[in-house]
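[audit] Reproducing an earlier prediction to check determinism. Same input, same settings, fresh worker. If the tokens differ from the archived copy the diff job will pick it up downstream; this log only records the rerun itself.
[audit] input (124 residues):
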Amino acid sequence: MEIIISNSSGVPIYEQIKEQIKVKIVSNELKENELMPSIRTLAKDLRCSVITTKNAYEELVKDGYLKNVPSKGFYVAKINKSLAHEEQLNKIETLLDNIIGIAKINNIDKKTINEMINILWEEK
């Protein structure tokens, strides 16, 4: 499972892991009842602490994306995909609202912002 961590993003590592796993579940890259890597394995693969991956998994369990089966591991939970999709759209809307606010304060026009989005979109 590919997860990309940025040490310079300002977002806690456990949060980066959590959000990327959520996206993989919502996009069906990770399927319902699929066994997740163990906490130790994921920590080793990502070169981060076991506490960090444990925190990410615990948050995902709390949010309903994973289920913990004692002595067996963590599995992808059955989720309401439309509700999860709506949650992601909400996050994007909040980020875009922040971008628009910064752009307006700095007299950056909509065309420039759209060009930036298009360039970044094509790079992904």
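[audit] rerun output stored. Observation attached for the diff report: The chain has a mean pLDDT of 93.
[audit] end
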